[in-house]
Amino acid sequence: MKLYTWTVAPNPRRARMFVAEKGIDIEIVEAGDAENPAILSEAFCEKFPHRRVPLLELDDGDWIGEAAAICRYLEAIYPEPSLMGRNPKEIAMIEMWDRIAEWEGMMAAAEVFRNTSKAFAGRALPGYKKEIPQIPDLAERGKARLMMFYDKLDAQLATREFVTGDLFSLADITALCSIDFAGWRKLGIPEKCTNVARWHAAVSARPSAKV
Question: In sequence order, which residues have a C-beta less than 8 Å from that of residue 110 and are 6 or more positions away?
Fold first, then answer.
């Protein structure tokens, strides 16, 4: 198997952290362009019309796109240590909070980043050949969504070590990657969100957070 990643992007980091936490020996391939790190290489885009990373290429030539789907596949093959739940309730809670972190955190940060970064002018949505213009109002909405996400996460972490309880999981990985991504646009953790700050310091110290 090969895991195609892109060092500068948050979604591939989710997959890299998952692999690191599992201790899986897998070939990691950088899909970013060597001369312009703000774009994916033409060779990758020609081979995989999905045009997004992370992407897992299987030994039989099939491929799996999207971070959560890749992690689900790897969890099934390498069940220990569990990162997606040890019982039905835990599995559901982790999936729920992973989706919340992705859609209310990472996607909100992406609205800001892709609609304000000069490097992504004409590429406001990933995976398309067609030019997609930036919309400044979406950036403002993204900022508002992020603040609501921080409040929701802070309340969730008030009585928990990790996002869903005592198990470090994919939900923590996605939340961490979302918050660090938001930091690129100076939209880091608000001072009032002390529970998020405590949790963020702890999970950032894990070796997998450095990959």
Answer: 142, 181
Kindly compute the dihedral angle of the four CA atoms of residues 169, 172, 176, 178, in this order, to the nearest 10 degrees. Answer: 100
Looking at residue 8, its pLDDT comes to: 84
Q: Which long-range contacts (CB under 8 A, 24 or more apart) does 93-98 make?
A: 93/164, 93/165, 93/171, 94/163, 94/164, 94/167, 94/169, 94/170, 94/171, 97/156, 97/163, 97/164, 97/171, 97/175, 98/68, 98/169, 98/170, 98/171, 98/174
Long-range pairs for 24-28 at CB < 8 Å and ≥24 separation? 24/74, 24/78, 26/1, 26/2, 27/1, 27/2, 27/3, 28/2, 28/3
Q: What is the pLDDT of residues 107-156, one digit of tens each?
A: 999 999 999 999 899 999 999 888 999 999 999 999 999 999 999 999 99
Specify the residue for token string 């972190």. Answer: 101
Residue 112: Cβ within 10 Å count = 23
Bridge partners for 17 per DSSP: none
Separation CA 89–CA 141 (nearest Å): 33
Tokens of 158: 């008030």
Q: Report how far residue 150's alpha carbon sits from residue 152's, in angstroms, rounded to the nearest whole number.
A: 6
